[in-house]
Write a structure and sequence with these properties.
about 100 residues; mainly alpha; about 5% strand
Length: about 100
């Protein structure tokens, strides 16, 4: 790819929107995940009696919270994939169309 094409891509408003949206959304999901995981570890460290509370039989609050973390991670990943397959793919196609149309002139 030549520098002219790269400059066209970098200056495309769809490219700027893609980079900005993907970055901010990715960081938002990462921060949510980190808060959940560090919250769980903090609970384990500072309140072990809370996670040791038995809910059903030998199953404790800690097991439920651990399962919740796994499910939450899968859901957050699904949210990102859904956004990537809709909004980000649309922006990418718009960038490709703009660049290929510009190259045919």
């Amino acid at each position: 790819m030549d520098n002219k094409t790269l400059d066209r891509i970098k200056n495309d408003p769809n490219y700027k929107a893609l980079v900005s949206e993907r970055s901010s959304f990715g960081w938002t999901l990462a921060i949510i995940t980190l808060v959940l995981y560090y919250g769980y570890i903090t609970l384990v460290a500072f309140s072990p009696a809370t996670i040791a509370i038995k809910v059903v039989g030998t199953i404790t609050v800690g097991i439920f919270l651990g399962a919740f973390l796994i499910v939450a991670s899968v859901i957050l990943t699904g949210v990102y994939v859904l956004r990537a397959n809709t909004r980000y793919d649309q922006l990418t196609l718009a960038i490709i169309r703009a660049v290929t149309a510009g190259g045919k002139k």
